Amino acid sequence: MSDVSAIIGRACGEGRSKLLEHEALDLLEAGGIPNPPHALATTEEEAVRAAERVGYPVVLKVVSPDIVHKSDVGGVILGLKSPEAVEKGFRELMGSVKARAPYARVVGALVQWMVPQGLETIIGATRDEMFGGVVAFGLGGVFTEVLRDVSLRVAPLEEGDARAMIGETRASTLLNGFRGMSKRDVNALVSILIKFSKLIASEEEIAEADLNPVIVLEEGRGAYAADARFILKCR
């Protein structure tokens, strides 16, 4: 059994239809999809050790099967640059979540290296009864809802498919250095699209998935899936 199948199998075995945050990132890692170094912490001490390991600055995100919108309950803290900041941030995060979502089961906090600022894109997938896995690509961040500018293809993708998807969206203009902006690492983005599509094609238990955002850095610096969501249809 592959690491990907093991992660999905464990969640299904526990009766869950959604992967937890750290599981989703571990699944991406197992599928060869770049994502920020991360670790799950359950105490302040573990959070500090994790931050030292993944590298500063870090983001803290609450991990809970009962919380959908983390920011609404104070469950995300950005830009922590020292052990002291991580300790304080962990306490504040847990205190805020306990006060604003007392019903929530809290597994811990995800400690994640904070990706530098880049162009935010989104990659998603659904499973169609006729076509199987269908992959979507478009601009991320506020542009996702405003522009609704998305390209679709049936998984798995070849390189030409991935490049065509990107070229069909407004993201293409920004990726190629619009009005003096730096060109972005399109090759890294193409690689993520291909690997993600193969993951969707091979793992039929994945009913829906979103990588949002996929942050594309300057040319030669790569791209990272900074957040991921996987909905399962367990057999």
UniProtKB/TrEMBL annotation:
InterPro entries cross-referenced by the UniProt entry: Acyl-CoA_Synth/Transferase, ATP-grasp, ATP_grasp_subdomain_1
Keywords: ATP-binding, Ligase, Nucleotide-binding
Keyword Aminoacyl-tRNA synthetase listed: no
Superkingdom per UniProt: Archaea
Residue ranges occupied by any ATP-grasp domain in the UniProt entry: 25-61
Listed GO MF terms: ATP binding; ligase activity; metal ion binding
Protein name: Acetyl-CoA synthetase
Phylogenetic placement of the source organism: Archaea, Thermoproteota, Thermoprotei, Thermoproteales, Thermoproteaceae
